[in-house]
Write the structure tokens for this entry.
Amino acid sequence: MRSRLTTLVTVGFLSVGTAGALALGGVQDFGLGGHNARSASASQYGGGPAFVTPPVTTPPVTGPPVTTPPVPTPPVPTPPASQFQPRPATAKVSTKGATTIHCSVACHIVVRASRGSHRVRVAKTLGGSGTATVRLSKRALRRLGKGRIVLIVEVDGKQVAKRTVKLT
């Protein structure tokens, strides 16, 4: 019972206080748009006391929409594909078994030599563009023995040269 009485008294004070504040302030329309009242944004941004938005008129549509003709765009010039890929590596194998390899960019060089069931491999990495000479070591030549050997030169996994050489 006591809480209901407290609620009624509180509502009464709030109502009397709001009505008294409105009466002292002299507001007669309570913000409902009476007496040419305007919103706060219209007062702040409006163009004066007689701010009225003009009506928008649209012409009648009688046919298909008017479009501008498409303007052709010229093709973008692109360099040929040969400029995107580095030039392939070249290799020369001498009659003595030495290989000279030229790479335009950094590359990994592998020289494989085989005679029958004997095989040797020499690998070298070229850090930038340039030329490298790869020779089989004396130990590798002894392992292969005397006779015809097949030399295969690979650059970055692709075979670029192959030659048969007779070792004496």
Remarks:
- The mean pLDDT is 78.
